Amino acid sequence: MMGTIEGLQRFDSVRKGRGLCVTRPFKVGELLFSSLPYSYVLSVKERGCYCEFCFTSKEDLARCGKCKKAFYCNMKCQKEDWPMHKLECSAMIAFREKWCPSEMCRLVARILAKKKVQKDRSMSERILLIGELQSHVGDVDNERREMNEAEIAGLHHFYSKHLELPDHKDLLTLFSQVACNGFTIEDDELSHMGTAVYPDLALINHSCLPTVIVTYNGTSAEVRAVQNMKPGDEVLISYIDLLYPTDDRNNRLRESYYFTCDCQECTSKSKDKVKLKVRKQSDPIEPEVISNMVRYARKAIREFRAFTHTKTPSELLEMCEQSLEQMGTVFEDSNVYMLHMMYQAMGICVYMNDIDGAIRYGEKILKPYSQLYPAYSLNVSSMYLKLGRLYMGLERRSMGISALKKAMAIMEVAHGKDHHYLTELRIEMAQK
Fold it and tell me: The SET domain covers which part of the protein (predicted)?
């Protein structure tokens, strides 16, 4: 499929397997290609805010007359989505309030449905390509294997009456493929909107020094250069959050994608010392104290994630504050583990409408983010957006405009100058 896109070429190597490289120069911000998803699903939490079919955000979306749960821009979008939505529509009516499949389960159901109903040649080629996606069934650990088994059980429970399911082995393979190759669709502030499978994007390898970035325009994925590229350069994205030090990044890559990165940054570990910055004291902090605090920080992050759905916002905020106080005895505020907890605390403050608290945390985060993330990072632009909008909400217009302009400078490269996010942001700044 990539052979049909000008300026790109697919390659195969013994060390990296499949990949993509460019056959002509690309400048920073230039679009390499855009890709429509093979299949996708809107997050249940975003229903009513976005069109199920095109992911457009607008007021007065039309509700599905049958299930009353799905929303659309108009009849055209509803009609286009019906081959996929009818699976959930009948299931939601049957299960009512007990309908609760995971997002992964919903996406796999749609992939299976699409394989069955799609008849045109181009989509048949895409179906074949789904079979080429990476699968690591034999590599998964017990925890992931149990999660896959639970997903398969959910698929049978919620969809078996409305969908013909393949055998258990094939389902394990498909869930493994989707877990390794699925993409999270996010908005301008990096809030989760949905999940999709893009066979074209699955050809792109990982690096902690990416040459391109993936952003979304509705359900379409767009790949733009974040470095000047010359013929022969490989197209590389980051599969993970690049804020964290080398060991953390590679632990995540091994757990989720079953490989270790050997890029220049992972080999040199050049940013690790800055990312793990400790407080200056009259007597240097012992290495053992630092390593113990790193272990504490990782444990605190795991525990916070485990309690996000069971504790109240005020309890979660208290967890953040306690861990920040403990880590702050050893770590500087710019240490990535401190930044992680500050980011969580900021989100909770926004949820609790504590705008001053959210701004306080955001201001501490912004400068280290700008230093630690790569150029044109969406993590940095989204933080400028969040802070800018918070400032505007408190009538601190000059600070708000300044932050929003800095967000725009990054987004013009990452999203393209004509993206609707930029258009809407310009209108937002003019109105306020």
Answer: 6-240
CATH number among 2.60.120.230, 1.10.220.160, 3.50.50.60, 1.10.3470.10, domain 38-197: 1.10.220.160
User: Domain extents for the chain?
Assistant: 38-197, 274-431
Q: How far apart are CA 191 and CA 213, in angstroms?
A: 17
pLDDT of residue 71: 97
pLDDT digits (tens, 9 = 90+) for 80-119: 999 999 989 988 998 999 999 999 999 999 999 888 766 5
Name the residue type at position 283: D
* Closest to 173 in 3D by CA, of 198, 149, 137: 137
* Helix, coil or strand: residue 204: coil
- To the question of pTM greater than 0.85 for the whole model, the response is yes
Confidence of residue 126 (pLDDT cuts 50, 70, 90): very low
Q: Which long-range contacts (CB under 8 A, 24 or more apart) does 418-423 make?
A: 419/215, 419/217, 420/217, 421/188
Give bridge partners of residue 195 from the DSSP assignment: 41, 184
Amino acid present at 162: H
Token look-up 């925890």 returns 143
7: alpha, beta or left? (left if phi > 0; alpha if psi -120 to 50): left
Q: In whole angstroms, what is the distance from residue 122 CA to residue 199 CA?
A: 13
> Does 428 score more than 50 pLDDT?
yes
Architecture in CATH of 274-431: Alpha Horseshoe (1.25)
